[in-house]
Structures are given as C-alpha cells and as structure tokens.
Design brief:
With 377 residues, the chain is mainly β. 0% of the residues lie in helices and 47% in strands. It contains no helices and 32 strands. Strands 1, 2, 3, 5, 7, 8, 10 and 13 form an eight-stranded antiparallel β-sheet that branches. Strands 15-14-19-25-20-21 form a six-stranded antiparallel β-sheet, with no helix packed on it. Strands 4, 6, 9, 11 and 12 form a five-stranded antiparallel β-sheet that branches.
Length: 377
C-alpha cells in the first residue's frame, strides 16, 4: 500500500564480472500492462565516490567513479586521462563503519593538501607516519553504525599523492575497503517513475511487421518467402501477408533500434549488430535473402543474421483510426466494431482483425483520443 513494507527476500551472491542490476515487474497476463511505482531505490557499494575536477576549486567536474579506498601515488602523472597532471582536485564522499567499537584516530598524508570530515566534523591533520609515542586524540566509533566521511584533496604542481587511514589498537592501516560504503540513488525520492505505455519510437522495439498502411503488429516471424511472410500474433493465430504489402519485417530487436523514419525510402537489411546495408531485395528463398547493393554487388544473407528487412514500398493510404494495444502493436483501421469482449478492426491490408478489449490501450482518430474506459458498443 506504499506505507507498510516487509522484506520479500534476500540473497548474498559473489559477482566476479560486470553485472546489470534492476527491478522487473510482470502482470502475469499477455494482455495487461504491469504498472509499478518505483521510489527510493539505492545501490550501496564498498568504497568511496570520487569526484575528479580539472581545477583546484572543485568546479570543473570531469569524472565520477567509485574508488576502493584512498591510497594513491600518481607521481607526475594524472589520476585519469581526463584530468590534467597539475592543478586538479578530488572530493571523496561516503560512509565508514568500523568492525569493532572503540577509539580511532584518522591519519592521512597529501601532496599537496587535503581536508577531512568525519560525521560532519572537520578533523585535524595527523600524519600517516609511524607513531612517535605522542598520544593522538581519538574518536569513538560504534560497530553497526555508519558515519559520514568526506575528504577534499587539492594538487598544485609537481608530484601528486594522497592516502587516508586510521590508527586503532596499536594498528595503523589504510581504511579497509570492507569498512567503506558508497550509496547511490538509482531512483531517488521525488524521481518517481512508472513504465509509460509505448510511444511512437518504442512501437518498433519488438519483433513483428510494419505494413504500408502504418500498422505495426507484434508477432513472431515464422517464414519469409517471395510469396508470403507468415507470422504468429501472440502465439495464437498465424497470419500470412504478401511482401508487397509490407514496409518492414522486424526479425529481432537490434542493439541500435532505428527510429520510425530512419529507413523511409530506403531498401535493404539491418544486421543483428545494428548495421544497415542499403540495396534492392532480389529474392527470398529457403531462409536466405538476396540483396543487390552498389557497394557489395549481389550478396546473399541468412535470415538468422538479420534484425530487419526494409522494403521500398510506397506508403498506402492510412485509415483514419489508430488502435494501440498494450503489447506494442498499433493497428490502422477504417472501422471498429465492438463484438462482446472483442474489437473487430478493418485493416485494409490484413482484412478483419480481432483483438480483445483487455489488450486495448487507446484509440485515436486524428486529434481525438478515446481511452479504453470510455469504450462502449
């Protein structure tokens, strides 16, 4: 209900390679769009967030990254190719949590200079060098609690280095990575998001057919030949369409999805990696396509290599009604008839096309918009 929360589950996993993290939702229905409100999602990593600036006044930000700890010696080099070797600054922020409750002294060295804040309090500078027997002031830190930590470092000219550690129970060491935490807002408070219905560009981020009328039907392509393109709509029925009626065939979603108008007037194929080869389509036989290209001559490609086939067909006259479905399909129709729980759409190139009202997102007629909640026989 957005007010009372409980733990759904937890897991500890070892990630040795780069991983993607996200939140997935489902309506558990082929004809219903799952809508989720996502708020206050945070990702916590071990380490500190480092903001790298190309000046000494923390103004010209060039790089943000997570550093495992603060223990660097760059010499006459720079921390990163984006940063000049002289006259730069770095701000590290995050939290620190000790493994054991006790008194700690923060120690650091910096060439040229640095300042440190712990739990909002600026700390005096105590060098990292070996203890000379002088008693150092201590800060009481409790296990199970995280304390805000911020360090600002400035480099003028010459060699650059900085290291931060703590002294505890006769031990001096760099701040351990396991004690440092950096929390980033994935979806912060006030940045509430919901999965918006498909727009004009996202309509084509699915497998299916784009007809010359402008209708786009999401489906699984079964076969492609000179005589017919056969595809399954929602796995329920097989539809056959003559190639002259098709503007594009989307066999898969490539990494670089084209916009709706990116290949208008162009004939050719798009490979699975997103590369587009322009040329005239000569033949479709036995799972292969023959393409005649000015650059490559006559080229034969296997359909399994392709993401899209673009036919250079003149657009047909688009019917006035536009019916958008929750699965991403968009059907142009000259008439809409309500029959029980279904809609019967008259698509000029497909004929009568039946869809469930539960799959409906909206109906448009030029400037008019009719939502599914206002639909009546």
């Amino acid at each position: 209900d957005g007010r009372h929360w409980k733990l759904a589950g937890s897991a500890n996993i070892n990630i040795e390679e780069k991983a993607l993290i996200g939140i997935a939702v489902t309506s558990h229905s082929s004809f219903a769009l799952a809508t989720a409100l996502v708020d206050d999602v945070f990702l916590t990593e071990n380490g500190l967030q480092g903001e790298y600036f190309n000046d000494e006044e923390f103004q010209d930000l060039k790089l943000t990254r997570i550093d495992p700890n603060i223990n660097f010696w760059w010499g006459l080099d720079s921390p990163d190719p984006l940063i000049h070797p002289d006259h730069f600054s770095i701000r590290w922020t995050g939290q620190i949590e000790p493994k054991a409750t006790g008194y700690y002294t923060f120690i650091y060295d910096a060439d040229d200079s640095a300042e440190l804040w712990v739990d909002g309090e600026k700390q005096p500078h105590y060098p990292y060098k070996k203890d000379t027997g002088r008693k150092l002031p201590n800060i009481l830190l409790a296990t199970g609690r995280r304390y805000d930590l911020k360090m600002e470092y400035r480099e003028g000219i010459g060699p650059a280095s900085v290291r931060l550690g703590w002294a505890h129970a006769n031990t001096r060491e760099p701040l351990p990575n396991q004690a440092l935490f950096c929390t980033k807002a994935v979806v912060g408070s006030g940045d509430r998001e919901t999965n918006a219905p498909p727009n004009n560009r996202s309509l084509f981020a699915s497998k299916g057919l784009l007809l010359r009328t402008g209708s786009f039907i999401v489906g699984s392509i079964k076969s492609v030949s000179e005589n017919a393109v056969k595809f399954s709509y929602r796995g329920e029925k097989e539809i056959s369409v003559a190639p002259p009626n098709i503007a594009r065939i989307f066999l898969r979603v490539p990494p670089r999805m084209p916009g709706p108008d990116s290949t208008v007037g162009r004939t050719g194929v798009m490979l699975a990696n997103g590369d587009f080869f322009e040329g005239a389509i000569r033949a479709l036989r036995g799972g292969d396509i023959q393409l005649s290209s000015v650059l490559f001559g006559l080229k034969r490609l296997w359909l399994g290599e392709l993401a899209m086939i673009a036919f250079n067909n003149a657009p047909a006259v688009a019917p006035p009604w536009e019916v958008r479905l929750l699965d991403g399909s968009m059907i142009r129709t000259s008439s809409i008839v309500v029959e029980g729980e279904d809609l019967i759409l008259d698509e000029p190139l497909l004929g009568k096309f039946r869809v469930s009202q539960s799959a409906l997102m909206e109906i448009r007629n030029k400037e008019r918009l009719i939502s599914d909640s206002h639909l009546s026989p």
